[in-house]
Design brief:
Belongs to the triosephosphate isomerase family. By secondary structure, this protein is of the alpha/beta class. It has helices at about 15-30, 45-50, 80-85, 95-100, 105-115, 130-135, 135-150, 155, 180-195, 215, 235-240; strands spanning about 5-10, 35-40, 60, 90, 120-125, 160-165, 200-205, 225. It has a single domain (about 5-240), classed as Aldolase class I (TIM Barrel, Alpha-Beta Barrel). It contains eleven helices and eight strands. It binds 1,3-dihydroxyacetonephosphate.
Length: about 240
């Protein structure tokens, strides 16, 4: 049995009251079989970090700025996240790539900033449905990874967790088929190995729930899960974090 990484991405959901109720559930459990990280919206980060200070559960952010400081209204730097108790940060989620036109180059910059303050980046990659239909999955994955290998040394890249999140599986209620996940993870692992980055944590994300977690975590090269909707329920998140594999 190996230790996996389970990351809950709460996206733009919640209130002080609902966050407090999830935190109470998580704290009551005290430990989980796998490493657990919750990524709340910015306004609840410090509150979650304070509440989870004495627990093994870590806190992450959902995005970070590509520069250190300056006249950038609405932006939050890696230094600010670390200063508020964050240890992880999601970078390049497909929802941000799409709605905020984030480029691969900008995402690589965000990773560099995060690594410089010891925040552990979780970079999301994955193809859209039309790209999958056109047989372009590998091309897209290699393009997204290619910018990272241009900007990061093998040592830097080895500290980045890579989440394969096929865009068409996110929020669909149906995780990607096992063979698709296996193939994508194999491609990602081979690409990273060829670059000299050997120890990456690889995650799968897209409609993960307590029912499919065991099967997903049993797929070769899957070292953890990035969980959206199901992570808003403390019990469900704990159940996923306690999956026997
Ligand atoms: O986007 C996701 C996690 O980052 C996946 O979301 P769902 O688990 O809701 O499909």
């Amino acid at each position: 049995m190996s230790q996996k990484l389970i990351v809950g991405n709460w996206k733009m959901h919640g209130s002080r009251a609902s966050v407090q109720s999830i935190l109470a559930q998580l704290k009551a459990a005290q430990t989980s079989r796998h490493t657990l990280v919750v990524c709340p919206p910015y306004p609840y980060l410090a509150m979650c970090a304070a509440a989870l200070e004495d627990s093994p559960i870590a806190v992450g952010a959902q995005d970070v700025a590509a520069s250190t400081h300056g006249a950038q209204t609405g932006a939050v730097s890696a230094e600010m996240l670390a200063d508020n108790g964050c240890r992880y940060v999601i970078v390049g989620h497909s929802e941000r790539r799409l709605a905020h036109s984030e480029s691969d180059a900008m995402i690589a910059e965000k990773i560099v900033r995060s690594l410089s303050v010891d925040l552990r980046p979780i970079v999301c990659i994955g193809e859209s449905y039309p790209q999958r239909q056109a047989g372009l999955t590998e091309t897209i994955l290699f393009r997204q990874l290619g910018t990272l290998t241009q900007k990061l040394s093998p040592e830097q890249l080895s500290r980045v967790a890579i989440a394969y999140e096929p865009v068409w599986a996110i929020g669909s209620g149906k995780a990607a088929p096992k063979n698709d996940i296996l193939h994508a993870h194999r491609c990602i692992r081979q690409y990273l190995n060829a670059y000299g980055s050997h120890s990456n944590t690889l995650l799968y994300g897209g409609s993960v729930n307590p029912q499919n977690a065991e099967e997903l975590l049993s797929i070769a090269h899957v070292n953890g899960l990035l969980v959206g909707g199901a992570s808003l329920n403390g019990e469900h998140l704990l159940c996923i974090a306690n999956t026997c594999v």
